[in-house]
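Weekly puzzle thread! Below is a chain. First person to post its structure in token form gets bragging rights.
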Amino acid sequence: MKSVLLFLVCFFLGVTVVYGETLYVKDVFEVMVRTGPDRTHKIIAMPKSGTPIEILEALDIEGESEWVKVRLPDEKEGWMLAQFLVPGPPKQEIITRLQGQNRALSLKSKSLAEENDRIKRERKELERALSKRTQTANSLSESFETLKSESKEFLALKASYEKASKELGTKTKQVAELENEVDGLRNSQTLRWFIAGGSVIIVGFIIGYASRRPKRRSSLL
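Winning reply:
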């Protein structure tokens, strides 16, 4: 009988009540939980809107709306009118929850925006550092190419210098040999001139001597 009455109450009130199910207090100013299923019983609790309520039992009393026995979150048990219960959290509770979630999302969005700004700043710093390093690398590359080119020129100049030095050494040796030959020829020519001069002097002396001797008279005289 109690089950039938509970079904009828839920049908007309638009609330599906199941034993052991958790319902919620509606958006009302005052909801009273009493020790018994009528208004004459003592009030033992006044749960706020959105409080989850566990259904234990339902009762129909003539002249009164349906009453249900409930268990509160603090384990207190009592009776209250079923019309103040809804299957889900009340609108105000949902609004409050959504507002809280919205605030949390706003804070998270702000945090993400700040993080995004920080990442952008770091990215710009990294781009500047990369650009600077790229310029440095290009400068070093140009310096290396210049040094390599100058090194090639230096090596070529060194090779030319060594070749010229070698040729100069050869020419110097040849010149020295020629000078020795010239000196030899010069000495030989001087000797010849000396011999020739001496011969002339001797011949002259002989001629002079011969011309100063008295001529012999002929024995025929």
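Puzzle host: Confirmed. Bonus trivia for everyone else. Helices lie at 2-13, 91-212.
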